[in-house]
Amino acid sequence: MSASIQIGSAAPFRYVLRLADTCLISAQRLSEWCGHAPILEEDIAMSNIALDLVGQARALLSHAAALDGRGHDEDQLAFLREERDYLNPVLVELPRGDFAFTQLRQAGLALWLLLFWEKLEASSDAELAAIAAKAVKEARYHFEHAGDWVVRLGDGSEESAERMKAALTTLWPYFNELFDADDIDSTQTLGPAWSALRDDWQQRFSRLLQDACLPVPAASKYQSRGRQGVHSEHMGPLLAQMQVLQRAYPGGKW
Amino acid sequence: MSTQQEWPLWEVFVRSKAGLDHKHCGSLHAADAKMAVQMARDVYTRRQEGVSIWVVPSSAITASDPSDKGAYFDPMEDKVYRHPTFYELPDSLNHM
Question: Which residues of B touch A41 (CB under 8 A)?
């Protein structure tokens, strides 16, 4: 059994790490659809998107490890941290729910990542800029793909519209965390503060909801704090499944 | 799933990076043309196979009848003179 690793608290490191964790944990949730999507073609599409997110997470984790300077590699950062040291927003750790829930979350996240990568392309950190330049193309497609599903289902049958509305009601308060401001964002100089993405995201996501005949919900005051390591009850089981192999077979490769 | 059976079938044609023409590479189910292009992208170009995709409703294709195969194609078997293999080409023509 591998022991957990300790990580640093420097703002640049944590800034990169929580972006990496956002990609990593959403990839883990999305990959749960492998073999379970409603049709074969979508099964492959979702797996492709999950793998894109894993790729983004790997590049960011490697870079974060270098910034942290403790000699960890991407695998150790991905698999050997305690729950409180994962810094993803709670949004991405929520159980995958039904197909409507997954696609709505994916659309919101993909749009957010798209806006993030567009700004990160101008980073003073050449490696982050390069990661963003590659990822921005992937995110553009992810948003198109999930966004189309949101419109199809929201403006679809009675049942699909009901499921989209239910998903929106559940997810809406959790989107807040994507735009939360804190000391890490305000002291780092590598890329955009998360709060700087709010207006663009609101505008484009509202347009998507309108296309999908879904009412734009009123602002919620709820504030989840996954970015500070305070996770929901769903995070533990997710990590157990994600970590079990690396914990049981330290350094295992396949 | 019932909706899956209702979705029409599409034929997918992909042009590779070096290729000049779109080649048929398979078929898939999708609700409409836009979804078919996306699905084709995810199913048939995930290993960098292509730079352009066409999708065509399978129902739009009129095919030759397999039972006509003998009448249609066998007569060409002994028409060797239809192949332009009796010409000598100048060396400068490499790509005929």
Answer: 28-30, 39, 42-43
Indicate the residue of B1, B30, B34 with minimum beta-carbon distance to A41: B30
- Tens of pLDDT along B28-84? 999 999 999 999 999 999 888 889 999 999 999 999 999 998 888 888 888 888 877
Contact B1 A42 (CB under 8 A): no
Question: CB A45 to CB B31 under 8 A?
Answer: no
CB contact under 8 A, A148 and B7: no
> Identity (one letter) of the amino acid at A23?
C
- Whole-structure pTM value: 0.89
Both tokens of A229, joined, read 């390591």
The residue whose two tokens read 């042009």 is B15
Chain A residue closest in CA terms to B36: A41
Interface confidence (ipTM) of the complex: 0.77
Nearest CA of chain B to the CA of A77: how many Å? Answer: 28
Q: Is B54 helix (H, G, I), strand (E, B) or coil?
A: strand
A184-190 long-range CB contacts below 8 Å, 24 or more apart?
Answer: A184/A11, A184/A14, A184/A15, A184/A18, A184/A227, A185/A15, A187/A11, A188/A11, A188/A12, A188/A15, A189/A12, A189/A124, A190/A12, A190/A15, A190/A16, A190/A120, A190/A123, A190/A124, A190/A125, A190/A128
How far, in Å, CA of A159 to CA of A60, rounded?
39
Q: Would you call B4 and A38 a contact, using CB atoms and an 8 Å cutoff?
A: yes
Spatial distance between the Cα atoms of B80 and A167, rounded to a whole number of angstroms: 67
